[in-house]
Structure prediction request, 365 residues.
Amino acid sequence: MNAALIGNARAVAAIERALASASPPHAWVFVGPEGVGKATVARWLAQAVNCEALVDAFAATNAVISDQLSVVSDPAAPRENVWPCGECAQCVRIARGIHADVVTVTIPPPEDGVQHKDISVDQVREVEQAVALAPFEGRTRVVMIDPADDLSIGAQNAFLKTLEEPPPNAVFVLIATREEALLQTVRSRCRRVEFTLVPAREIEAALRERGVDADRARLLALLAGGRPGRALELAEDPSHIEKRREVLEQARVLGSMPMADLMDLGEALARKFKDDREAVLDRLAEWLGWWRDLVLVQSDAEDGVANVDVMDGLREDAGRYPPADVITFVQALRECRRRLEANVQARIALDAMLVTAPRAASRAR
Prediction:
């Protein structure tokens, strides 16, 4: 497997088979959790349909067949190899994100203080205009829509005509975590590929191949929670680990904070959510990780703990809270993140979660 691809071998193999077929799909929908490699595989697919080495090899094979059979070979015939070389100009430019024919459509950044909430009809119209033209530097235009589950309903309906009557030399990849947010009419016109969380051992092995020492690779693989993208982020920037410890410490003190302070915290997080929703969701994910690990320690299941570098703190806190209260809070954290992702009013969702924080008798250190 390509060194850039970590895990989800079954998904990659399915794409490989489809690309090698006589009639490969013109539209795909990659579904699965955040950070499991969907965008990475989409770039790999873009390389596969533009790689100079594959074009040359296919042309050479067809030339031999034509010479032997004295017929013109079928340009749509199945191919044995669809793996991009990763070294030609096409592959390199796609990997660097500077290829003119490979674009990503996403939610626009804020403009004049206005926060965009979805991918608009106008953006889809721009895509339609672009793919109507012949490729500029490669042989196939590739449009990645990420996150596709943030396409507005109007944008999805506008996109249907392009999916129904795809232009030649164009491929679309819709990347989504919430498949149900896509219209059935859109999904039915795309080849579905499901991605899953990656086992920690595979992430750990990939990190070690990249030069990360064994102990650190194990920790990062566990903290990643099945998301190779998260593990690579942590490996590339050691400051993430220190920031994470600060967030975990905040998770620890939730049980000793007065209710008024918890409500102030909820208000502060709700304000931050308006400007940086991902930062708040990430913080809640770290809180969830701490309290989930606490459940495991209380259940004598320490082998499943992710935050292994703070095990002493987990063991210390395990005796401070009733297990049933900790489980209730874990459920509340999960529900809060789900509601925030579904755009429920942030203050209401956060307050409903914080009021269930377990009560600690003391916080003696």
The beta strands are 27-31, 102-105, 141-145, 170-176, 191-194. The chain has 16 helices and five strands. The radius of gyration is 24 Å.
